[in-house]
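When time allows, look over one protein, given below as sequence and tokens. The question is which stretches look regular and which look disordered:
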Amino acid sequence: MPQLSALDLTIIAVYILGMTLLGVWFTRAQKDLRTYFVGGRSIGWFMILVSIVATETSAVTFLSVPGVAFNPDGGNLTFLQLSFGYIIGRCVVAWLLLPQYMNGELFSAYEVLKQRFDPSVQRVASGLFLLTRTVADGLRIFLTALLLQFVLGGIGPAIVVVGVVTIVYTYLGGMKAVIWTDLIQFVIKIAGAVLAGVFVLKLLPGGWDQFLIEGEAAGKFKVIDTVFKPTVALNIWAGLIGGAVFSMASHGADQLMVQRYLCARSLGQARFALVASGFVVFVQFLLFLSVGVAMFLLNRSGGFDLPKGVRNDEVFGLFIVTKMPVGVVGILVAAVLAAAMSTLSSSLNSSANAVVTDFYRPLRPGHSERWYVMLSRVMTAVWGIAQMAVAYGTYKFGGNKSVIDRVLEVAGLTMGLLLGLFLLGTMRKLVASRAALAGLVCGFLTVFALWLPSTGLTAGLPGWAPVFYKEPLLAFPWFAPIGAGTTILMAVIWDCILGRSSKS
């Protein structure tokens, strides 16, 4: 197992201590829910933009996306096709849903559903968000631990360190601490990725020229795939349609992102930050994928040997700890920690927000603001422990599927359903709350049935089972469109049935 130098360990320790002290610094400002959850609604557009990008650029992006392009079995730049759809989806959210969130003194995205339907719809949506965040971000902790195991002597200790440090500074500092640490972490991880790219190019015998010539010859620079295959995630149709709807769901119906818009000074600033973030994410993806291509060429030229059975997710982490100079390793490990913590801290704060705003406060409205802030901090710790448990479970029973595929699958399973509820809420003629929930259940059952074969659990079905159900039916970008569409369609149908039955 690679051993880190004293300098590298010092750099990592200083970074961890700095994030913790920043949380302590912001503790004094946390007097009510308005400051703890939405930063007093005083954050400028640039900080909102950075926070959006930092939050969705987790350790999954930093470690797993380079592995997508590195993949010797056909890896290339086609992952960029998803980002095309992400930009389209953000534009729709900015003009369709964002005005609803910025109208009034909302703390949670799901309070909008309470205004359109009734509290039961709000709570079901908020519960789905909590489930999704816990599983997806537990997977993110696991991926970060794959690298930190080389620093801390095992995946178990790595999971504990990432989880506990993030819990501490989020617990203390609230949303302002999250956004300011997002800025610091964004700078660190982008600088780290650029630094890694420069070093891998220096290690290539032919440098930049070899990167361009051999990368093109190996088909590594392919961006567009026009062949439509429903089981293939990376083609232009899945990117534009699936990516757009997925982005509408993740940035329009997910408390993790909506909470950032609620911190903005105005609708215009929130809208600009949201749309601009799509283009920044595209550039990030291009940077991380290019690092993956360069590592592939270095490996093929004999300059970067890998042990047998190594996962594509682990390649970048191994490159960092085995090929980077002393000091640079510490910076890059800190960059991975930054990528993980920026997403996890946002997730913990948003999960605590959902519990207090959507569940506890409506049922127990008589408490003081300080009581609600204290409860929010307790919930921050509770959800952090839950995510650490998911990470450890993944380590024990997770199999070999790419972590980024798992995260996007989990998000696709539920985010489309939530988007369907929000789109129902924008309709001129609202459906009944019972119909909306019935549509949600139908949407979930449909997407779950389509997702199940991709888990491999149906491979052992008895002989009488349908043969087609033993293989994956759809790739993850299609889960969100189908989930949203089914939820809306079945809600409208149920509303017609309930309407007729009430008249008879």
